[in-house]
Specification:
By secondary structure, the chain is of the alpha+beta class. 30% of the residues lie in helices and 15% in strands. It is globular, with a radius of gyration of 29 Å.
């Protein structure tokens, strides 16, 4: 197999000529060939990653010792019922730099259906002493087998196998995930092509607002194997975030908070520890557990941190269905949960998707304060209060400010009204418990935080990412709304006046609006 530039540079410069090992794999339901177009990752990791301890002898002879590859290579394939024929076609005689050969490799199948039986190839002594002594470059060893226990037709290569059931592996992953605080694990494939048209149309209409990163990566968001070459499956993870002490009837209590104009409302998910940190660490721990069981494998974890279609992947992996507010909904957990992903080079059995259960309900659309849900399953982020208070860095549009009420970080209205959230689950982790100062605090108090106090009170919180300037901007809008509602409390005007000369143009403009100056 040909190694890509990344691998070649990392391991000493794999020479991409006809002298490289090449593998062709054919199956009942697939016909894949490893060639130059799969340079940076495909069916098998590139032989450029092989570092088998050959040392200077390889460099001196200029002949790649295929026996040494064969002694260490492992190829993961599925249960035998998924394939009928696998053929290997190895070109022998390639010269590799000596720096390539320092440790043993593991080759992992990269396409659907290749995770199950482990195949270890080993050349016998006759090949090692005969064929590999030949100085003819491009000498070929070929072989075919129909069952793992059978041998190649030329009798020179033997196949030994140990069974690994991918369904059993998935069960283990789910058990490990529960130990780490995850509520559900699913598996999705990497073909999201049916989502590309909708994503392109959403971006073309500018619904992503200032979130330039949404468009910067193009359709990679819908192409996991382009974002992380070699990805075959995506493990999706759900983690519930309602604080453990959340009482019954919590939705009504949250609506009551919105009717207290002096109180600043932070979205429920942001009242505890930053979920990015919690999920990322635990997803990596889950990956480590998988590696302990399987050995090294290709993977990358994501938590709302890269161009990933999280909700779409979760829906395809049976975590729930896309609600009309575009969030994922579960019959067992509502929508009060975080999502994370592990892109892996293991072919795992995909989870069955579930059907939608919104029916004719339009409660989320009707209640949205800014009417950001412009149609079922279509959100104009530019109007969404979560976007305006978190992602948007500039002035909040004048026509939207009165609609924000006392929401100073995020908005939960479409989730609070959803009937499925009566099934929302409490978190088993203390990380999402409410932090002091972020619930029930008065706007006057919050506006009075210095930057040092803001950083101290929001340490480890997702709120910190917006910075002190935007924090003051949001609170000024909420205080202006309280004044416009006829609140006679003079402390609001006094607190705003103290910020009227703030060095930030953004803060001064919103304070002036709040004071109706």
């Amino acid at each position: 197999m040909v190694g890509g530039p990344e691998q070649g540079g990392a391991v000493g410069g794999l020479r991409r000529q006809r002298d490289l090992a090449r593998v062709v794999v054919q199956c009942d339901e697939m016909d894949h060939q490893v060639s130059a177009r799969y340079e940076s990752g495909s069916l098998l990791r590139p032989f450029g990653q092989l570092e088998a301890g050959a040392g200077k002898d390889v460099a001196k002879t200029g002949v790649f010792p295929f026996a040494w590859i064969a002694e260490t290579v492992k190829i993961k394939v599925p249960d035998s019922k998924f394939w009928q024929l696998i053929g290997f076609d190895h070109g022998v005689g390639g010269a590799f730099d000596a720096a390539l050969h320092t440790q043993g490799p593991q080759q992992v199948a990269y396409q659907g259906g290749f995770a199950g039986t482990q195949i270890a190839m080993q050349l016998n002594e006759r090949v090692a002493q005969g064929r590999l002594r030949s100085k003819r470059r491009g000498e070929q060893l070929r072989g075919r087998f129909v069952r793992p226990e059978q041998t190649f037709y030329n009798g020179d290569v033997t196949i030994s196998s140990t069974h690994i059931n991918s369904s059993q592996l998935l069960s283990k992953i789910q058990a490990w995930a529960r130990e780490l605080g995850f509520s559900q694990i699913g598996v999705a494939g990497v073909d999201l092509s049916s989502s590309e048209a909708g994503l392109s149309a959403w971006l073309a209409r500018g619904f992503h607002g200032d979130m330039a990163y949404m468009a910067a990566h193009g359709l990679k968001r819908a192409r996991p194997a382009e974002l992380v070459p070699g990805t075959v499956s995506v493990i999706t993870a759900r983690m519930d975030y309602l604080p453990a002490a959340t009482p019954d009837g919590w939705q009504a209590l949250e609506f009551d908070r919105l009717r207290r104009p002096h109180e600043g409302i932070v979205s429920v998910y942001a009242r505890g520890r930053d979920y990015h940190k919690v999920l990322r660490q635990r997803l990596q721990s889950l990956s480590d557990r998988i590696a302990e069981h399987l050995g090294p494998f290709g993977h990358r974890v994501f938590t709302d941190s890269a161009p990933v279609l999280e909700a779409e992947l979760a829906a395809r992996s049976g975590q729930g269905w896309r609600g009309k507010h575009t969030l994922l909904l579960s019959r067992e957990a509502g929508s009060m949960f975080f999502l994370g992903e592990i892109y892996v080079d293991l072919a795992l059995p995909p989870s069955a998707a579930v059907t939608g259960h919104c029916g004719s309900c339009s409660a989320c659309i009707d209640i949205c304060p800014t009417q950001a849900i412009v149609a079922p399953h279509r959100l104009d982020a530019r109007r969404c209060i979560s976007y305006l208070t978190i992602e948007h860095a500039g002035p909040i549009p004048l026509e939207l400010r009165p609609l924000m009420g006392n929401r100073i970080y995020g908005c939960d209205d479409c989730q609070l009204i959803c009937p499925w959230n009566k099934f929302a689950q409490r978190s088993v982790l203390p990380d999402f418990d409410e932090r002091k100062g972020l619930v029930g605090s008065q706007l006057v108090t919050l506006l009075g935080w210095s930057e040092e106090e803001f950083l101290r009170f929001t340490e480890g919180s997702p709120i910190r990412r917006i910075g002190h300037e935007r924090w003051l901007r949001n609170i000024a809008v909420a205080m202006g709304n309280a004044l416009r509602a006829g609140d006679p409390d003079a402390s609001l005007r006094t607190a705003l006046a103290l910020r009227a000369l703030h060095p930030s143009d953004l803060v001064r403009e919103h304070v002036a609006w709040a004071l109706d100056l």
